[in-house]
Queue: 3 jobs
Job 1
Amino acid sequence: MIDIIVPMEGEGTQAIVARWLKAVGDTVTEHEPLVELETDKVAMEVPAPASGVLREILLGADAEAAPGALLGRMAVGGETDTPNPAHVERSRDTRSSEGEKRGLDFARQGLSTSLEVSGLGTAALRELRLSPSVKRACLQHDIDPTRIVGTGRNGRVTRADVDKLVASGGQKKSSAPALASRDVPHDRMRLKIAENMLASVTQAPHVTAVFEADFTAIMRHRERHKAAFAAKGIKLTYTAYFVAAAAEAMKAAPAINSRWHEDRLELFGDVNIGVGTALGEKGLIVPVLRNTEQLDLEGIAAGLDQLVDKARNEKLTGKDVSGGTFTISNHGVSGSLFASPIIIAQPQSAILGIGKLEKRVVVREVDGVDTIQIRPLAYVSLTIDHRVVDGHQTNAWLSRFVEILEGWPVDAI
């Protein structure tokens, strides 16, 4: 008998058992997915540690599962003796209650009606096995999930499948009558986001400084080099420049890349930068690019490509979203000129905000003469934990960040 445990990556993050993919008595092969866990950030599958037979399920659906917790046990090798009847019954109860809960969740979100109309009932809901993200997207766009061809494992519908259908304009409206108002239960991610945001502003005094950055230099550089990057399968985005400049700016104010403790300030050598990635109505997630201080622009762009793709296809692991020492929120992509304060991701000490890029009329001195020019500008803000740094370090960091962006050599690689 060997133990099936919750992975230790992302230690300190509380997970919930979403569902078991196997029942007691089922034969499984090594690395085959056994159980799905959900945290406030990601969903993950726990694989079988060896080939054998699942013997016990100790944590059923909706049970809390801390890193290292015992999920169940399995017998290794070719043992096929009849499992303990109590364990089989426990597994059946677990699967039954899980299915009933999923059906209730759909009913609350107004999706079960469309399934009944299409000739499917609660049993179909159990077989669909939609993730919270997919269920919420179907609710938002009034989509019947049974009409979506899933591209995930075993034909499972993914968030990418829903987004693709919406983008194509081919979504089918539910036959259920429109409601004037309705209640949408909070999912685990939204509740955890709320908890974290409240804890951050309660714990840390937030102060925000704002500069303006001219994007002319990085726009010229990107225009000259994006084709070469694309030839290597790498998308060169503005975010890559922000990450590179942020990593370099840490040298001007190292305390920005730190963690507050009651008796000391922990200064980090590694610059692990989290980049906020929107997940529609569900909220956002912050995958972390590690050791950015050691990467060139190409390495940063390639790393961001991989993380963003994993985020939008719900393939991030606990390791992908943990260990950040600094965060960038590019809120300008959704049209915001300026946001304050952008709440710090505890236990970090600062967060960078990038506003919408737009052309503005400015005065620039040329050969001693003031001239009126049109320039691509954006507001950049740094929100800091005032326990950690003061205005001097904050402005020094922002000054260096802007200096790097505005002085980017057009031929640099």
Note: Confidence is low (pLDDT under 50) at residues 79-83, 85-127, 173-179.
Job 2
Amino acid sequence: MLFKDQLQFVMQHMKKNKLRVTMTVLAAMIGCAFLIVLASIGFGIQHTLKSELLNDEAITQIELWGDDTLSEKDQAYIQGIDHVKVVLNKADISGMVKSTLEDREGESNSSVIDMAAQKKLPSDLSEGRLPEKADEIVVGYHFAQNLWNEADMAEIERKSKEAEEAGTYYDGSEEGYKGELLNKEITLQFFDDELQEYLEPATFKIVGISKKPSYDWVSDTKILFSDALLDMYPDLVTYPTSTIYVDSIENVMPVLDELKEQNYQVYSQVEQLEELDMFFLIFKIGLIFIGTIAILIASIGIFNTMTMAVTERTREIGVLKAIGASPSLIQRLFLMESTFIGVLGTVLAIIVSYAISFAANAILPYVVSYALPEEDLSTYQITFSLIPWSLVVIAGAISLAVAILSGLRPARNATKIEVIQALRQEL
């Protein structure tokens, strides 16, 4: 029996039972589509989180832990490692710094930075320049919003009460200093931890303003000083940290491994990426397992359809055997039918899954924004569903394997039908 005759034999029977075959195909499609769409959620969340991390400038940075300032010897060694661009020393000043401008006051965290190393890095200023003297500073993008007078504080208190009654929160962003900060002179006071009071005020000049933070929920009110400040205030309590800047993400792990071999305490977000990949691998396997259950449920329909096909075609099987058809040929005919059902269900499932994925990514941001009106999702690149080819291949393979296995037992039963008994069966 030629292959085209086998195909024709199978297709004729499928046409005779259009309704039953159609419902079975739909069941297989729903099961496979459920697996793909469910697993696509894991791929989508992973893609979103990895994109956020990869777009963060800190992805090519390595943090050095420790309470002591990096020695010149250590700094020279690290700077000599291949692909290391800059070793930036920084020290956070203990306590808040009080700022006074005209009739306004504010409090900010502050840091002292090695400006010689900072100048080797791409500028992170929205305007102005880096400090060159001890009495020059760079302020955060939202520093002006943190300078309030009595009228501002009264207005903030009023708006906060209104927001609290409405079940929301007011951050005071509409108040603050509205004038130009660049090149302004401002009075600063450092906090003395021992005396538990602010030191004598000193005048500083604002020479630069940092760029707007990447995330809207971040409020940058920090003050950055040149390392020359420690000559003016040698008794300031600081907490030093060092950051290693690597030229590209591909070279972060080799540099990190070399530093660990030398017993440096280091950390990089690239390590977090590896942990993230492992977590989502397990998560996606779990989702695929749950989705496979839906396919197994659909396999019951395929098994039932093929069992009925064997029962209805007992006489045809007897005729085929009588004219010399081998058991393997008869088994192959029924397996071809179950395979066709699996293929049709899988193809339709892939089309439906991509349609659902596209619709979810287009509609869900608006649904979430409506449900959470205080959240602005327009600045977030959220992927709710992502269907890579690997997922399509895995889901398709599972669906086809289940369809073939579901038809295997009925196909074997067909080969066991006795010729004489089959030919005696009434039409």
Note: The radius of gyration is 35 Å.
Job 3
Amino acid sequence: MNQKYLSTISELDDLVGLTSKECDAMETVSDTFPFRSNEYYLSLIDWKDGHDPLRRIVIPDPSELSGGGCLDPSCEKDFTRKPGLQHKYSQTGLLLLTDVCGGICRFCFRKRLFMGNERETVKDVSEGIDYIREHKEITDVLLTGGDPLTLETRQLESILRQLREIDHVNIIRIGSKMLAYNPYRILNDPDLRYVLSRYSTPEKRIYLMAHFNHPRELTDVSIQATEELQKAGVIIVSQTPILNGINSEPEIFTELFRKLSFAGISPYYIFQCRPSLGNSIFQVPVEQSYEIIQKSWQACSGLAKRARFVMSHATGKIEMVGKTAGQVFMRYHQSADPANIGKFMVFRSNPVARWFDDYRHILTDFESKKSWLL
């Protein structure tokens, strides 16, 4: 089943029928934060429910214009070494391959890519490939954007082939929400499945970093596409931010974690929603997010509880590992400065904090700044 993609509110209106008030409001939002989706995903939405969680994931909401946040909350430009190539963590290189997605998540932390700003993705990845080839510490390459599975299969094959020719690249990851947004991309393209099977070898696997935000995205078609990728030797893991009004109830996360683990998809990261421009309506306070996760896990097996709750901060991935009535405990799971990996931090509780900076302004010398620790 080929999918028609929609990128204007008038196309959405033609498909699902909107009131003139809804059209006007959505048009105003999409002038700033573009809209994109497809027939398959839109068919999953209950259009009679104005608070439908899948609707909130992809349909423009006037509250997005309420302000706050910035376009690059994790300071990715600071770690851009070549056009389209980021190198923040020693072992990991990141290639931005495209500024197109199967759908544009309203809470996207890279929405700047869709807003007509300075182009960060590149069609010619040769400089990035050369950089990876020269930096032998890079064992893991993440293909992202945008969604790499929006590329033609022959383009993706060329990139995979070049990376597999580099001996020290052992893991190739593909960051994609296509299993949720358009699983027919996988099911309708046997060439894609063949290419993935060719370059995902027993010694050097390809990982698909799936983005499932709500259990209703795990449809029969999505599970079928998942199985086809698994047959091709691809390891599938999933990640999601905690999102107000989408998955911010423990019961929703319980169902999501259980369905993922039942399908052989490993929960990988749970992100605190980044403070990107327009994201304030989706953010849940950090400590509330932690409590949601803990409650959701009460009905989950160990296999469903493998995800780490992290903030992708400019300085690194900061994991929240515990809290008491008066304190919260964090550690650097990953860091731009390798010396900080594993550093443990204790802060006074701040129930309204929505990001790491709300606990303390970032300091660079952990050992000398004892006031950072309790």
Note: The radius of gyration is 20 Å.
